[in-house]
Amino acid sequence: MTRFALCILITCITSITCLAQELEVASVYNPVQENDTLLQVKNMLAQENDTIRTDSLQDFQDKYDNNRFKRGRQFLHNDTVWKDYAMGTRVHLQRLTDTDTLVTIRKNDIKPILESLAINFGVWGYDHFFKDADWADVNAHTIHHNLRCKWILDHDSYSGNQFSHPYHGSMFYNAARYHGHDYYTSALYPLIGSCVWEYFCETNEPSYNDFLSTGIGGSAIGEMTHRVSDLVFDNSKTGVRRIFREIVGSFINPSRGFHRLFSGEMWRVSPSRGKRVSPEPFSLDVGIGNRYMREMRRQKRQKNVAYIDFAMNYGEHFDGKDHHQPFDFFRLYAQLNLSNEDPTFSDIDIRGRIATKQFQSHNDWKFDLGLYQVFKYVDNYGENGKSKSRMNAGDFAFVNEACSFGAGLYTEKVNHGISFSNDFMLDAIAFGGNTADYFSKRTYNYASGFSLRNEIRFCVNNRMVIGDDFYFVRMYMFKGNEPLKPDTPVEYSKWAWGDKGNCSIYQNRAYLQFFLKHNLKLNAEHKLFYRRSNYASFDNVHAKSFELRFGIIYAI
């Protein structure tokens, strides 16, 4: 299941890169109280062909800069691709054309439940008939046992528990979203689907960790894939482009892909693109390069790993709208290792804004105070935490925030010379995980705690970006695995969080980016990592390492 889910997500992100060039992006730009002159120029440009005259574009850009420069946007090639001064990247704007309308959806409460049952049956059938998994050999006895026994904390692999289960939950979530439910109602369906799976679809006893990661982490991945897939599907396309979009969109959002297949919408052509979400601007940066990692304690071992990463901003912090919806702004980061000695994904970070309060000072400082749902997954050492390289796995820890919510304050000041932004967030981690040093059943601990992150960024003369990204997490393992005595029941470990104690992780990433062209940047980073784990019954552990990264970034 892990590799299957990874392959799907790889295809999702890679496909966005290919499709971004094809997307007919245009503006739903809705500035506040534009003057009449600016509106006249905008109307003139709207009547132009796809290729806009340079002089008209320049006239509009000059007027735009003079009247609304505080929004921090600059046109590039046309009126659908803008430069974000504060973030130092290209922003694609979207609009509903004259032939476009949002799809009207009638809510249905029963169909998502039936589809969740079908999803569970499909996943179970694959594991039972094709993989011949022992835990999928369910019968009346195992079901009866699961219905009567206590819930536990299981000992499955890190990637299975912390990534595959949330991805599984996203399918339940998207089944509900397809049938007209909003973010809040849809978030209930992964919880229902997870309960059904725990009781009826495996011989293992029901586990709290699976229920939480599937139910809560699934809603974060689900809403993200719901909105990204809406960028891809386009009912107005035909031929090879249509086939490509249908395949890619179905990989991103399998629930919606199956609906389109069985309803016939997959090959039905119409003037409307079939959008289900109000269009939002987005940006996508694709980076590739090399990671040099070295331990700073113990034997000071080192290695080089090629990587490719993706950074996507969906929506904008400041968009002039009076009403906002959950995840109408989110940030996605994913890092892939191009090495068979390391996990495919070493970092996945989703931060979706649920609610926001925006305000602006008299001197054009802008503030966005928001409530966020967070999903963070860091795995530097692959399946079961074991690397094929000689690096010490404890020096590059596991970090998981599958069930995390927090508050964030984004600050922005745009100037002609230097633009400044600061992104601060404080998260409460209801349930997550970190590296285990002594626990014999797992390579990771279950834990709860909090995290703090702050990213400061300067964009200098639209030529260079200087930034520093600090991340701190403190996790507590409340019920631990103390040194076992001869008469200790084996069942004890089923309720153990891991190694009892607490763990603090510090990570600081300093980066420098130089613009080679308007959409191409050189990237240099230095990342410092430090972990301190204090245990109640074992010796404390300290780990320290650093990473140097060099590569290029292409802004789609």
Fold and architecture overview:
The protein is of the alpha+beta class and 556 residues long. 29% of the residues lie in helices and 34% in strands. The strands form 2 sheets. The chain has a 12-stranded antiparallel beta barrel with strand order 4-5-6-7-8-9-10-11-12-13-14-15. Helix 4 (110-130) runs parallel beside helix 8 (188-200).
Structural topology:
Blueprint: H1 2-20, H2 36-46, H3 54-68, E1 73-75, E2 81-84, E3 89-92, H4 110-130, H5 140-148, H6 158-178, H7 183-186, H8 188-200, H9 208-232, H10 239-252, H11 254-263, E4 282-295, E5 302-314, E6 330-337, E7 345-360, E8 366-378, E9 399-413, E10 418-435, E11 444-460, E12 464-477, E13 501-517, E14 520-535, E15 541-555
Antiparallel strand pairs: 1-2, 2-3, 4-5, 4-15, 5-6, 6-7, 7-8, 8-9, 9-10, 10-11, 11-12, 12-13, 13-14, 14-15
Helix pairs in contact: 1-10, 2-3, 4-6, 4-8, 6-8, 6-9, 8-9, 9-10, 10-11
Features:
556 residues; alpha+beta; twelve-stranded antiparallel β-barrel; 29% helix; 34% strand; globular
Give the gist of this structure.
By secondary structure, the protein is an alpha+beta fold. The chain has helices at 2-20, 36-46, 54-68, 110-130, 140-148, 158-178, 183-186, 188-200, 208-232, 239-252, 254-263; strands at 73-75, 81-84, 89-92, 282-295, 302-314, 330-337, 345-360, 366-378, 399-413, 418-435, 444-460, 464-477, 501-517, 520-535, 541-555. Among the domains are: 102-263, no CATH class; 295-303 and 357-375 and 384-555, Lipocalin.
